[in-house]
Amino acid sequence: MQRTDSADVIVIGGGIAGTSVAAELADSGGNRPALRVVVLERESRLGYHTTGRSAAIYAPSYGPTTVRALTRASRPAFSTPAPDGTPLTLPRSALFIARADQADAVETLCGEIGDTLQLMTGAQARELCPLLRESYVDQALLDPGTEEIEVALLHETFQRRVRAGGGEIVPDTGVTDIAKAGQDWRVETPKGTFTAPVVVNAAGAWADEIAKLAGVKPVGLQPKRRTALIVDCPEGVSAERWPMVISVDEQFYLKPEAGQLLISPADTTPSPPCDAQPEELDIAICVDRIETAFDLSVRRIAHKWAGLRSFVADGEPVAGYAADAPGFFWLAGQGGYGIQTAPALGRTAAALVRREQIPDDIAAAGVAEASLSPARPGLG
Q1: Residue 29: exposed, middle, or buried by beta-carbon count in 10 A (0-12, 13-18, 19+)?
Q2: Where are the strands (E) in 61-106, listed by range?
Q3: pLDDT tens, residue by residue, 226-255
Q4: CATH 3.30.9.10 residue ranges in the chain?
Q5: Phi/psi zone of residue 157: left (φ > 0), alpha (ψ -120 to 50 degrees), beta?
Q6: Strand (E) or helix (H) holding 269
Q7: For the segment 318-327, what is each residue's pLDDT rounded down to a tens digit?
Q8: Which of the chain's ends, N or C, has fewer CB atoms near its CB within 10 Å?
Q9: 266, 244 in Cβ contact below 8 A?
Q10: Are 166 and 26 in contact (CB under 8 A)?
Q11: How many angstroms separate the CA atoms of 84 and 86, rounded?
């Protein structure tokens, strides 16, 4: 039997973006009333696409200007354990490695990020990750401020907050049509009709498609495929305390992962919105790049997958009301930074949905409404 339901806010998308903003909107903290929020997720499992396929690193030095500001502003949230006391992050530094011919890239990265990075020789880098080939690594930059994020736990924490605030999460509910009905938006799904004065478009790679359904101008979102593999450590080698190793030009990375190694060619191949799958060519490129930089022979791939990271033209997230559609709110374009920015971006988006100022601590970190606006130059 199909249902008809009304809410204060409908959030389309149950990934980390949708659940983080829904958790904040459902929260009645301070003098704000809790809003009745319904989260619609097209898949039967939340976080099936990008959220569940992330490399899961908190890296304040990673990303463009606003992303880095949102990441810094998310630090207090990541320092707060989950309700059961489990930490949301684990220690995991990041090591950016460079060949002798990449000295300029090292200098550029130092200039962009400042004094948080520690310059190292190739020998010092190999002390941290003994698999690095002496012939490959000339120097490196260590970022001790990064950590590994427990993504599933973070996502579950947001979901619990939604439900605790009286919100509802409806999985396996794809959107088939969106239209204005008076002051409300009417969202049609195979399970029924949902109405609310505000729709938050947090549909990830499908965000522009959702906008088109609603007759809203797209922001020019481009999903890009990224490939990852799980491979074995060499016999007798324990990588648990190693940093995540990233090439300074972001052509590959390697990260310890539950006794094995997660490796990626850091590919950014344009793709339509889809259930992304790894391509054999990308797998081959990944193995070649890793074997070139590391004394590692990949003989078995234990697991492989791909995910979509969605970007707009300037690489910054989009959060704000559409100029051409009252009540239609964008929360999209998080690129590869959606997990590490989720706490601050969720709070920021919720404030903007409520037509409030960006929270003071987030604004102090360097986040401005104009830098997130869907109406900023270059989008669409």
Answers
A1: exposed
A2: 89-91, 94-98
A3: 999 999 999 999 999 999 999 999 999 999
A4: 94-144+222-311
A5: alpha
A6: strand 269-270
A7: 999 999 999 9
A8: N
A9: no
A10: yes
A11: 6
Q: Cα separations (Å) of 17 from 14, 33, 55, 154, 200?
A: 7, 21, 16, 11, 10
Gyration radius from the chain CA atoms: 21
> Which amino acid type is present at position 250?
E
The CATH topology of domain 3-57+151-219+314-372 is FAD/NAD(P)-binding domain (3.50.50)
Rounded to two decimals, the pTM is 0.94
Neighbouring C-beta atoms of residue 299, cutoff 10 Å = 7
Per the DSSP assignment, residues forming a β-bridge with 260 are 232, 257
- Residues near 106 by beta carbon (within 8 Å), at least 6 away in sequence: 96, 98, 119, 139, 141, 248
Q: In the prediction, which pLDDT does 49 show? A: 64
Amino acid letter, residue 169: I
Per-residue tokens: 106 = 């090292």
Residues 6+ apart with CB under 8 A from 281: none
Please, where in the chain does CATH 3.50.50.60 lie? 3-57+151-219+314-372
Q: Which CATH architecture has domain 94-144+222-311?
A: 2-Layer Sandwich (3.30)
Residues 6+ apart with CB under 8 A from 261: 230, 231, 232, 233, 239, 254, 255, 296
- Would you say 167 and 357 are in contact if contact means Cβ atoms under 8 Å apart? no
Section 152-170 average pLDDT = 95
The set of residues, in sequence order, having a beta carbon less than 8 Å from that of 359 and lying 6+ positions away, is 347, 348, 351
Token pair for 56: 């899961």
3-state DSSP call for residue 110?
A: helix
Measured from the Cβ of residue 140, the count of other Cβ atoms closer than 10 Å reads: 27
The position carrying tokens 């010092």 is 124
Q: Report d(CA 178, CA 330) in Å as an integer.
A: 14
Burial class (CB in 10 A: 0-12, 13-18, 19+), 116: middle
- Bridge partners (DSSP) of residue 175 are none
Place of tokens 């995540």: 244
The dihedrals phi and psi of 347, each to the nearest 5 degrees, come to: -65, -40
Cα 236 off chain centre by: 34
Q: Exposed/middle/buried for 57, CB within 10 Å: 0-12, 13-18, 19+?
A: buried
Tokens of 246: 């990233």
